[in-house]
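User: Second chain of the day. Same drill as before.
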Amino acid sequence: MVGTSPAARWHKLRALLRIRHGPGAAILPPSVTRIHMEFAKTYNDGHMGPRRFWRDMLPRLKFYNPAIPMIVNRKDTNEGTSVMSIYFRKDDAPEAEGQEPIVRFQPTSSAIDTSKAAEPAADERVVKIDMKGLRSDDILERFMAETRSQPVQPTPEEEAEMREVAEMQRQGAIDREAQRARLEEKRREKAVLDRARAG
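Assistant: Same format as last time:
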């Protein structure tokens, strides 16, 4: 980041810390083979929690578990269920030496309701979480319990960076308010001068 402005560095640091830490920053066990989520495009009728989980928490899960497919199917209708399917490798189904690997049907994510959850492969089992009507924090709590994921804790250096970012945000809010007050004062002064000239 040599040559970039302090503001640009701050924005990059804030974005990096946001994806690395917070709800959903967790390492999944090797038994998890893939994750599928289905919910409506809009917030109505119990779909707010699933949408917030997808927007705020799933990116962190992807960051720490890039090899695990995470498929999202968004549908136009708010009717019906909103389900997360977590696929696990069966404990009693290790791949034998020399055996052909099991092919898993893997749809891509869809915003037009075309990526339904696949049936588990022969070596998989699936656990479903009914997300409809749940808050995103409640969905995460159930997800962590089912998968037995390990939350990622920030290092002392990252904690210091987070405190620095929080302080910069606080100072930025103070500076913006001071700037707003200065502009408002200039507008008042101009209005007084305009009235004096008109009189």
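The chain has four helices and six strands.

User: Great, on to the next one.
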